């Protein structure tokens, strides 16, 4: 398969791990005056980076530190705190795993996970991740395009949507035992078929070159980098091609707050907060967070904007 | 019913004011701990948000604590009135830290972003009013202010009940889903409020 070209996060968006670590060491070991100095230097750097100069920010080496990617997660099946997924997912056994592909397809099939990775390979994709809560990361995923799986299944004429279903295992997922205050389980998501077939849309089985940890959606999850993170359903058990717009979990919970499309859009605010800018996880200090403006379609407008031509993005948010 | 007329006076080697100050300083420890851990880099990937939310919760806790002092005396006979003022000031202090972490640390004092926030995030409106009330109460908590306000001081400080209700709403609707904690805090707040509505028996009123 030919490698798909997509925009890499800009150099200024990426914090080199060495820089990140050295600042931590500095802060940890420093007295108050040292701290103040470090803070000023960092502010200056952030300002320079903001101006768009390559000189301001250290050269890119690596994305958001692995530790942050694997310790700061929204995965309500394990709990609502960002640290819950990493801390409370010990009982979750992702293997063996299989994914059922069915619905309006010529070749319905249940794929053992190994067969998927064997057949469709593994490539690395460095994607921006923008959470609907207005924070962001830059994450190196490993996986294969969803399109490959769908092509193998062969959508029938008239198919328009793809529905995804996550796993339901209350005995292994403490967040699913909550009941009253939780989302409805299992978590479900959906895409329009053309969105699902887009070469940017990824089924990830790994992050940072290793198998997905439970908290990141083991063993296989969806990544749609131009949409808010909650569209990236984790621990997928079933992919169903359909002619009807499928229900989606957050939309069921609060339809006026979370739309079906959920495209990243700084001009369309969440009813309870602004989406104009985002906090960059892994950067900044205790006394000054790193923020940057949010981009339309999370910076992938050139690749995906034509999917939404003629649509009112304010109405179909 | 315990008698209020002859309160037991325990001996303390510290003067009342010293005891108030010690209580206040002691309960600044959670803030000091968070900031120390945050500076040491052990508060996780988003230390700012941990501080922000911890301080907000502490503000609420101390507000509730200051509000149970009076019913404790009236219904249980435990007199901790000496500590009501430092508890109220702790509520204000933590609320101020909470606001500082939001306005300065998270939002960089950016008036444009802040204005956007205040106009698009209703829960912030509740938060802002709560903070303004706490600030007014803190500012009028000195002996001089109490004397200057005279009879007006009591009705003014009843605003603490309003602050408690607004804080409950602020906390409850701040999440993406319903969380259990705000409802626990809210239940305590409503309980305190309900006690307030219990009519006082005639001639039993305390001073």
Structure, briefly:
The complex is a heterodimer of chains A (317) and B (207). Helix content of chain A is 23%, strand content 23%. Chain A contains nine helices and twelve strands.
Describe the structure.
The complex is a heterodimer of chains A (about 325) and B (about 210). Chain A has about 325 residues and is α+β, with helices and mostly antiparallel strands. Chain A has a domain of about 180 residues: Sulfite Oxidase, Chain A, domain 2 (Alpha-Beta Complex). Chain A contains 9 helices and 12 strands. In chain A, the strands form 2 sheets. In chain A, strands 3, 4, 7, 8, 9, 11 and 12 form a 7-stranded mixed sheet that branches. The longest helix of chain A has 19 residues. Chain B is mainly alpha-helical and about 210 residues long. Chain B has one domain. Chain B has 10 helices and no strands. The longest helix of chain B has 30 residues. The radius of gyration of chain B is 19 Å and the shape is globular. The N terminus of chain B is likely disordered. At the A-B interface, helix 1, helix 3, strand 11 and strand 12 of A face helix 2, helix 3, helix 4 and helix 5 of B.
């Amino acid at each position: 398969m030919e490698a798909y070209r997509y925009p890499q996060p800009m150099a200024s968006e990426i914090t080199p791990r060495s820089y990140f670590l050295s600042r931590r060491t500095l802060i940890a070991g420093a007295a108050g005056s040292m701290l103040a100095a470090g803070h000023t230097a960092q502010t200056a750097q952030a300002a320079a980076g903001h101006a768009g100069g390559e000189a301001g920010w250290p050269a890119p080496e690596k994305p958001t530190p692995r530790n942050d990617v694997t310790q700061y997660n929204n995965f309500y099946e394990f709990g609502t705190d960002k640290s819950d997924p990493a801390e409370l997912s010990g009982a979750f056994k992702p293997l063996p795993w299989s994914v059922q592909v069915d619905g309006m397809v010529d070749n319905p099939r249940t794929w053992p996970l190994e067969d998927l990775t064997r057949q469709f390979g593994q490539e690395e994709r460095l994607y921006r991740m923008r959470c609907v809560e207005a924070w962001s990361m830059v994450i190196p995923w490993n996986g294969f395009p969803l399109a490959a799986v769908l092509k193998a299944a062969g959508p029938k004429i008239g198919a328009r949507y793809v529905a995804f279903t996550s796993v339901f295992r209350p005995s292994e997922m403490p967040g699913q035992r909550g009941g009253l205050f939780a989302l409805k389980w299992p978590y479900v998501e959906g895409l329009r078929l053309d969105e699902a077939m887009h070469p940017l849309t990824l089924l990830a089985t790994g992050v940072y070159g290793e198998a997905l940890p439970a908290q990141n959606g083991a063993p296989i999850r969806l990544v749609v980098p131009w949409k808010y993170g909650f569209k990236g359903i984790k621990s997928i058990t079933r992919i169903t091609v359909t002619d009807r717009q499928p229900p989606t979990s957050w939309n069921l919970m609060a339809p006026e707050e979370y739309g079906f499309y959920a495209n990243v859009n700084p001009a369309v605010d969440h009813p309870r907060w602004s989406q104009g800018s985002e906090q960059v996880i892994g950067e900044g200090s205790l006394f000054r967070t790193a923020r940057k403006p949010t981009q339309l379609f999370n910076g992938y407008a050139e690749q995906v904007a034509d999917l939404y031509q003629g649509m009112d993005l304010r109405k179909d948010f | 019913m315990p008698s209020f007329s002859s309160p037991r006076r325990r001996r303390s080697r510290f003067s009342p004011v010293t005891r108030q100050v010690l209580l206040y300083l002691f309960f600044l420890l959670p803030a000091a701990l968070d900031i120390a851990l945050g500076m040491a880099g052990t508060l996780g990937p988003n230390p700012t948000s941990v501080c922000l939310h911890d301080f907000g919760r502490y503000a609420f806790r101390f507000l509730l604590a200051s509000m149970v002092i009076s019913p404790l005396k009236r219904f249980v006979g435990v007199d901790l009135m000496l500590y009501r003022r430092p508890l109220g000031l702790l509520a204000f202090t933590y609320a101020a830290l909470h606001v500082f972490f939001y306005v300065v640390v998270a939002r960089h004092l950016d008036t444009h972003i802040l204005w956007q926030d205040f106009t698009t995030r209703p829960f912030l409106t509740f938060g802002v009013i709560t903070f303004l009330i706490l600030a007014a109460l803190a500012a009028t908590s000195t002996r001089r202010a109490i004397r200057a306000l005279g009879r007006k001081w009591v009705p003014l400080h009843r605003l603490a009940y309003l602050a408690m209700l607004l804080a409950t709403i602020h906390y409850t609707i701040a999440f993406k889903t319903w969380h259990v904690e705000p409802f626990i805090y809210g239940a305590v707040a409503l309980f305190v409020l309900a006690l307030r509505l219990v009519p006082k028996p005639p001639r039993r009123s305390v001073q």
